[in-house]
Write a structure and sequence with these properties.
DNA polymerase, domain 1; Rossmann fold; three-stranded antiparallel sheet; alpha/beta
Length: 367
């Protein structure tokens, strides 16, 4: 058994210790294993960890649970992504309350070039379903190959997954329980198909009970994985509005399709637009415009940079983005070993030269 993984899983299972406190523990102590070997007195020196939390950590019995979880993972072909791993999705890593661990099953690229979340009411109307279908078809026809994220719930969510599959777009379902079951069970066949061209994601271990609070908690992953969240239909209250609010707090784009005045499941979208909490869109052209999506091939764009005079540091930035794709400004700073302030000035200059495009959340890509 991988001992390092055991301690990482155990850390995520500690009661009352969320992702923020857990990351503080690792940052100050140096490793997940160290959290369990340190004395209670040493643990109290970590910001946010007082005597009560320190005692809870020392008394916890999560290591045997973690061992059982790793056995389940090995037997069922599940992948595990700790927040310090290279496989952990970079967009989600930038979110302050990102989960410590993700469990995934399927064939997916969590760092795809374009990722959008499509969410909405469980009581989808024909209007909402047609919007989702038209949008997925247009994305596929224009060969964007965007990864579609949703929550595998009734209504708009599952229709987003099915439309993505129908048009051969990769799609990921974020669930609110472990990978040992699927709720609602009626979507099991869809979930199985998704694993061939996407998959299932959760931050909950196996044997997690179905709890309404967990469905709200998982919304941060739906919002955090994506460049933008699109609300298709929603009543005045609902999980999709919570997802939109979380996405906005992450400085991600939020879009909403407008509905007819008075329609129950358009009130939420109209409210988002009216309160300037979401940008109104009516189709793929609006999404292209606001997201800066372009049809030109990235290689062609990079080749065009050969005709633009770049200094050596700017060329390093261009070469890095060419090799690794979209990156956050702090990632560029770490790779090139220059301060963020210097990188920021260079990126602005590259934007003026029409070589680099700024994305939400201080992420950058080549044009």
């Amino acid at each position: 058994m991988n001992e390092d993984l055991k301690y990482k899983v155990a850390l995520s299972m500690l009661p009352n210790i969320g992702g923020i406190l857990a990351r503080n523990l690792v940052a100050y102590i140096g490793s997940a294993e160290g959290v369990f070997s340190q004395s209670a007195k040493a643990l109290t020196k970590v910001p946010g960890i007082g005597e009560m939390y320190a005692r809870q950590i020392k008394k916890s019995n999560v290591l045997p649970q973690a061992e059982k979880e790793l056995e389940y993972i090995d037997k069922n072909g599940i992948q595990l992504h700790f927040y310090t791993d290279k496989t952990y999705p970079r967009r989600l890593k930038s979110c302050v309350d990102a989960p410590l661990i993700l469990y995934t099953k399927g064939k997916m690229n969590l760092d795809a070039e374009r990722i959008i979340s499509i969410v909405g009411t469980r009581n989808a109307t024909e209007y909402g379903r047609s919007i989702v279908d038209d949008l997925c078809r247009a994305i596929a026809e224009r060969k964007y190959n965007a990864l579609i994220v949703s929550g595998l719930a009734y209504g708009i969510d599952v229709h987003a997954h099915r439309s993505a599959l129908n048009y051969k777009l990769p799609t990921i379902g974020v669930i609110a329980h472990g990978l040992d079951l699927l709720y609602p069970a009626i979507h099991k066949q869809t979930a199985q198909k998704m694993q061939e061209h996407g998959g299932i994601v959760t931050d909950f271990p196996s044997n997690t009970k179905i709890d309404p609070a967990n469905f709200i908690k998982r919304n941060r992953i739906i919002a955090g994985l994506a460049d933008a969240t699109i609300v298709v239909e929603s009543a005045k209250k609902g999980g999709s509005l919570i997802t939109a609010e979380i996405a906005s707090s992450y400085n991600r784009d939020v879009f909403a399709f407008p509905g007819r005045a008075g329609d129950t499941y358009s009130k939420g979208c109209n409210q988002l637009i009216r309160n300037n909490q979401a940008t109104l869109i009516e189709g793929i052209e609006d999404l292209e415009y606001f997201m800066g999506w372009e049809k030109t091939d990235k290689v062609d764009a990079v080749q065009s940079s050969l005709f633009i005079d770049l200094n050596p540091e700017e060329q390093k930035v261009v070469d890095l983005l060419k090799a690794k794709g979209d990156l956050f400004i702090d990632q560029i700073s770490a790779e090139i070993k220059l301060p963020v302030s210097r990188i920021s000035a260079m990126l602005l200059n590259l934007e003026f030269k029409n070589l680099v495009l700024a994305l939400p959340g201080k992420m950058y890509k080549l044009r």
